[in-house]
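So, could you explain the following?
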Amino acid sequence: MLEDPGTLSSFNWMNIHLYLTSIWTLAPFVAGFAFSMAAAHLFIPSLISTGDLPNTANKFRLPLTAFALVLLIPIILLLINAVNMWMRVGDFWPRFLI
């Protein structure tokens, strides 16, 4: 039988708050990264090959890829922060990976 979690202190609630903040802050960065990569490597080449965009639109692929790579930095940092905060759940719920 699983144990009930211990009483949550203010410190525990602060850790939960930081974890959830990291996760919610992560979402727009991931969406921006996905859109930039899709635009640079999916939409633009497809529209150029069908003739809907001129060949000069190819020059936007590199800046969009660079922007996506810049967005990758906060994504990695927020993921590391979220994992660190999630590991602190073990302070009051010892078997959280079940």
Notes: The chain has a mean pLDDT of 87. The chain is about 70% helix and 0% strand.
